[in-house]
Amino acid sequence: MSFEAIDGVLNINCDLIMTTALAAVLLLIGFWIKKKVPFLTKYCIPAPVIGGFLFMFITFAGHQSGAFAFKFDTTFQSPFMVAFFTTVGLGASVQLLKKGGMLLVIYWLVAAAVSIIQNFISVGLAAVTGLEYPYALLAGAISMIGGHGAAGSYGSTFVEMGYPAGITVGAAAATFGLIFGVLVGGPVARLLIEKNKLTPDESETLDTTLEEINARHGEKLTSLDVIKNVTAILVCMALGTQISGWIGKLIGMSFPSYVGAMFVAMIVRNLNEKFHWYNFDFGLVDGIGDVMLNLYLSIALMSLNLYQLLDLIGPVLLIVVCQTVILILLCYFVVFRILGSNYDAAVMCAGLLGHGLGATPSAIVNMTAVKDRYGMSRKAFMIVPIVGAFLVDIIYQPQTIAFIKFFVKGFTG
Q1: Domain-by-domain residue ranges, the chain?
Q2: Is the pTM value of this prediction over 0.85?
């Protein structure tokens, strides 16, 4: 950590260790504030959102006053996200996936339909506001379903095509989407749960993890067992990111590293169930994943620079606000019923608002906030990450490219 005065502004430079430590402290502050403010618990606002937002407004005040500015090294942010999805993969046995059944297919089709609706909203509002189609589409499914990664990739393509603000617009739309996604998911789920007097299905038998089996036999993890579990996570991350890189070169476009890690982890989990290479412990792995997810989102939010988005608050924000309002209405009046009108459906709506507006980690954070208040939905925690991280891309990507080819002249992707 270093301090330097530049043009009268105190610049506070945080290296990657200090950045991560600050994110952890803000996360704990978020949990503390949430505990002290009943409103935040009542409406299922995630703790990393509370702490991250608090610091985001501090940095905004520093910029507006010209007194100070922060610079963060967010190197660990991506590995944290990859680690989280790896733990998701390790938690998905074939038995659990089979029990997802038709509900997984239905949720997948719902998410895909949402991505198509988002692109129609974008081009429709572009026609009304006069915003150029590339910028409007960057505020559609590209940044809503695709997140910052897709927004940056498509934004770079549009810059090369002669739309200089492509990257900035994409980043702004994805940022606004992330903010709205983590703010509305919990409250919408709470409204559905309270209005319909929903409770978790206590008869669920989805959790057939080795943790429960070991507990029944009184077995305890040794330090070597812990090392083996952590090693499995790291190896899956390494192999998965390598495979994602190969797939990206093969298809000629960016392929998320966390997707490869998640599916390698799924393979390792199920092979381990057959060959028993090591004593897999779901509780340990799930706990590690929870830490990684919360740190990832804490870093993502605390490092957002609101002042960089002020110039784009016009048409781009209008489109994202419309995306948010329409998705809320869809979840409340349509999706909830399609998914079964039960507790699982309400939690999955929180997830859809998270990854339908921001990113899959946002979906998990939303659902975790709901789980902490009302109880577990194993179906939601199994289905949403798989669809949000990978399956939705199977439909979202081709139809988005079709929209771009139709509305943007000169696009040959």
Answers
A1: 76-407
A2: no
